[in-house]
Amino acid sequence: MKIAFTASTTPVAQTARAALIGRYGDVPLEEADVIVALGGDGFMLQTLHFTEKLPAAVYGMNRGTIGFLMNEYNESNLIDRLHSAEVAALNPLSMDAVDASGKTHKALAINEVSLLRASAQAAKLRITVDGRLRMEELVCDGALVATPAGSTAYNYSAHGPVLPIGSDVLALTAVAAFRPRRWRGALLPKTATVRFDVSEPEKRPVMAEADSRSFKNIVSVVIRSNPAVTHRILFDPGHGLEERLISEQFN
């Protein structure tokens, strides 16, 4: 099995990469059967985006903080773990965000696409789903659309629901909604197209983020699932993404 090891810039991740390369060898990403990512969840997302056009699946080992998308770090028996690993196939969200100058910014998001206020003023958003206006005005700190894989990240912190990995559902969640008071959001089919329009963008500037890639002075955003792109993540047996999503709700 040909393995490519990649790691975050932290000393602990770089030390782990050197140790694993000494034990198992290393090949270029383009030649790998499996890519092993060493770091935390943020680095895992970076790796998935960077390697999305490569055929190899990605197996993460936690050398970061939370490591929700990572497996436990252990230098022993890596080949056996890779052979027995379970595969989770994920489709990202595609984002088309238009800024005040009329420029369109395109990005993919494995976890979520979010709109966040960029000043002391609350954001005012209009929400359209599949071409039908669903909310004339949401006054809030922001709003987001999350995938099942990302539902335990920012979405969960904003009191959004945890989504089962095979549910074919997206979570639309408000961040600190002021009007309508305490509106928590909605569950939408994976096929839905969500559009946010920003009201009063000069007075109430808004930024858009796709997995932490930020774009300023946004006036509208269109979000939809992208079935043309599939990310494959490997997990140790019994510790797959579905089990982690369920367990997270009981912690």
Automatic annotation (TrEMBL):
Top-level division of the source organism's lineage: Bacteria
Family matches, as Pfam families: NAD_kinase_C
GO biological process, one term: NADP+ biosynthetic process
Transmembrane annotation, as ranges: none
GO MF annotations in UniProt: NAD+ kinase activity
Gene3D superfamilies the UniProt entry points to: Probable inorganic polyphosphate/atp-NAD kinase, domain 1, Probable inorganic polyphosphate/atp-NAD kinase, domain 2
Record keywords, A-Z: Kinase, Transferase
EC numbers for this chain: 2.7.1.23
Protein name according to UniProt: NAD kinase
Gene behind this protein: ppnK
